[in-house]
Design goal:
Elements: H1 3-35, H2 40-52, H3 58-68, H4 74-81, H5 86-93, H6 103-110
Helix pairs in contact: 1-4, 2-3
Length: about 110
């Protein structure tokens, strides 16, 4: 194999591993949000702040809003947050779900 292909493959493997870690964290955050839905107000505030600061494009903003609006429908909320499509993978990499897990919870999931 030529080096460029090997490099792309290893980046792809690294990217896939990162996506799996992020998905694992989001799965735990999803369950915690469903158990403690009062946390959504802080998430909405983070979303608004990032949007106003130009850190989130309009499409991502609308997508996150639509997901957060589903908190009262657990199956739909889970499905939307844990969707394995490229768009959701990209959104999860710059998640607005901050401050949900404690450092101990994060370490337990990734360790």
């Amino acid at each position: 194999m030529s080096p460029p292909r090997m490099r792309r493959r290893s980046v792809s493997k690294a990217s896939a591993a990162t996506d799996q870690h992020i998905l694992r964290l989001h799965s735990a955050m999803t369950e915690k949000l469903l158990a403690e839905p009062w946390r959504i107000s802080g998430i909405r505030q983070t979303l608004e702040q990032r949007y106003q600061a130009g850190q989130i494009k309009h499409g991502g903003y609308i997508h996150w809003h639509s997901i957060l609006d589903c908190i009262d429908q657990p199956d739909l909320f889970r499905t939307a947050l844990l969707d394995n499509g490229e768009r959701m993978k990209k959104l999860r990499r710059r998640t607005v779900l901050v401050g949900i897990l404690t450092e101990q919870e994060r370490m337990a999931l990734l360790g």
